[in-house]
Amino acid sequence: MGTIQEYYFQQRFLKNDLKLRAFQLARRNMSTLNQESRSTKRYAQIIRLRSSSAAEYISLHQRVWPDVLSRIAASNIHDYSIFYDEHTGLLFASFKYTGDSFEADMDEMKEDKETQRWWAVTDGMQESLNEGGGGGMGSRGNGWWRELKEVFHAE
After folding, report:
1. Residue 132 forms beta bridges with which residues?
2. What's the pLDDT band for 142 if we cut at 50, 70, 90?
3. Rounded Cα–Cα distance for residues 94 and 81 (Å)
4. Phi, psi of 45 (to 5 degrees)
5. In this model, does residue 27 exceed pLDDT 90?
6. 136-140 — which CB contacts under 8 Å span 24+ positions?
7. Whole-angstrom Cα distance, residue 33 to residue 84?
8. Average pLDDT of 91-117?
């Protein structure tokens, strides 16, 4: 058993270590809150998945290429999910955008070579619901994915 000085030193060290960890956690949480609070916009989109490509599409999305995931994050897209309705063949995508210019971030995504390669693989598996829809997530006008209007939200 240690001396009383060692005991107090250990308690002080432990207390300071816990304070440091609490500070680091609070700082990380504040960063997330700041990111979320600065103009977070939720997006929802739909597209039809060709039934002949469903298994391959789902398999691809179980192992999305790391560079594509990095580009999504760099484009200020978070909490991104894609759901599949087997009965209608529809894919439903939802995500949060936390950047300052969605169009600028989507333009950068469209220029990314690895994302272009990914879209070259996946776009052929889909059928746009927009007449004359162009490929890729960030297309405006007659985009590839049809953007949906939010009519209700509750936290």
Report:
1. none
2. low
3. 5
4. -145, 155
5. no
6. 136/109, 136/110, 137/45, 137/106, 137/109, 138/102, 138/103, 138/105, 138/106, 138/107, 138/109, 138/110, 139/106, 139/110, 140/103, 140/106
7. 30
8. 95
